[in-house]
Amino acid sequence: MLLEGKVIIVSGVGPGLGREVALAAARDGAAVVLGARREANLEAAAAEIDPKGETVAWKATDIRDEAQCQALVAQAVSCFGRVDGLVNVAALDTVMGGLDGDAEQWRQTLDTNVVGTLQMVRAAVPALKEAGGGSVVMIGSQTAFWPAPLVPQMIYGASKGALASAVWFLNRELGPSRIRVNTVVPTWMWGPPVEMFVDMMVAGGLTTEEAMARITGPMPLGEIPSDGDVANAVTFFLSERARTISGQTLFVNSGEFPH
């Protein structure tokens, strides 16, 4: 198994990508430590991963609070003795619009997605160094590279663009400690949020086929990647198969690129 014997922390474990990443890491042999603000989501995911609780632990965590980030890492070390990887899924992605947006919501997005994520990385670094190195995986967004025509998310895209820049610096800073830092960039992911968006388009008068075609039209493979597809890319970066890969960006997008 790709991750046998490894201990992986996953932030932002809810009903979507965070849960899928945790499930994929556990499937590939890792012990997983889950963080998110909502305890109900953590309890549900932990029960699904391992009802006996032998290979899973969790702690309610708001990544905007650095002490809570440190406590999540401490939980991992206390339960499993080490940390080998960190996946940063936690993000605020609900702020829509462009310059017409609310400046306070912009600040909240940047505080969560940029400052919070970097706080989580900083909290994990001592344990990763103690383990002899490891892997940090960021979850990016295509909106950082080109706007999604159906969903205007300027500040969300800007926040993910800032993380893309941070990865270059982290790669240089952490590489000598054998800590790899990479980014997985999804397009639309077939999971709860996108299912809800398709339902909204159908409620607005489109057929399901028409709604899906609006999303898949620019994708040469003609298929919306699932949360699980993105999670599989994450587990690759966490594994020893990627042991000399760092500072890289991997798009999981069915070949969708701007024309």
Structural summary, described in words:
By secondary structure, this protein is of the alpha/beta class. The protein has a single domain, classed as Rossmann fold (3-Layer(aba) Sandwich). The chain has helices at 17-27, 39-49, 66-80, 103-130, 154-174, 192-203, 208-216, 227-238, and strands at 7-11, 31-36, 56-60, 85-88, 134-139, 179-186, 249-252. Helix 5 links the parallel strand 5 (134-139) and strand 6. It is globular and about 55 Å long. The mean pLDDT is 93.
Question: Any chance you could write out the topology, listing elements then pairs?
Answer:
Blueprint: E1 7-11, H1 17-27, E2 31-36, H2 39-49, E3 56-60, H3 66-80, E4 85-88, H4 103-130, E5 134-139, H5 154-174, E6 179-186, H6 192-203, H7 208-216, H8 227-238, E7 249-252
Parallel strand pairs: 1-2, 1-4, 2-3, 4-5, 5-6, 6-7
